[in-house]
């Protein structure tokens, strides 16, 4: 074996080792998932490297993914998409276009990203909200809460909560044709954390005191 083939062989083994992540056999698209995991790992390594070189903060480097993944609000045949503000917090709003006889569902969504990165305008979140809006006939409010390190706790939570509170007003719900009994909060990762906190705060502050929430079911 020549030196070149030996180097190629070693490089292939190392790349395979880097990409391979053990996963249960029954996972769909295992290789796709491994590749995505490897891409994320690479970005993390590069971000750590950039920080050690003094080029930028680790989180600033990760933020580049959010920027690279940004898509503008674009309506399609099923959903009208706009960027707007609820209670001074930027949100991306998805309104189903389908004519339905009854009221629509409502969902307030919080993206993930460790409270530091991510955004409603990222391609993956935009697609998720769009599909949710279309398939569930739901008005989706995807929240661009302010991010760390510029803004610290509890600003992220306050933004998440004030958007939810704004949306739950009777006048806003009727403006968008949303059924007060069919609203949820949701999120992934850090967004799941925010959704859980918002759900508890809505219960404590709004439901238990019965203020401003005519018709919203509090169970
Ligand atoms: C619109 O909705 C239909 C039915 O759910 C779906 O088949 C179609 O792909 C959607 N269009 C877009 C642009 O997502």
Automatic annotation (TrEMBL):
The active site is at 189. Keywords: Hydrolase. It holds the Pfam family Abhydrolase_3. It comes from the Eukaryota. GO terms for molecular function: hydrolase activity. InterPro entries: AB_hydrolase_3 (IPR013094), AB_hydrolase_fold (IPR029058), GDXG_lipolytic_enzyme (IPR050300), Lipase_GDXG_put_SER_AS (IPR033140). Residues 107-202 form the Alpha/beta hydrolase fold-3 domain. PANTHER family: AB HYDROLASE SUPERFAMILY PROTEIN C4A8.06C, ALPHA_BETA HYDROLASE FOLD-3 DOMAIN-CONTAINING PROTEIN. Belongs to the 'GDXG' lipolytic enzyme family. This is Arylacetamide deacetylase. It comes from Apteryx owenii (Little spotted kiwi).
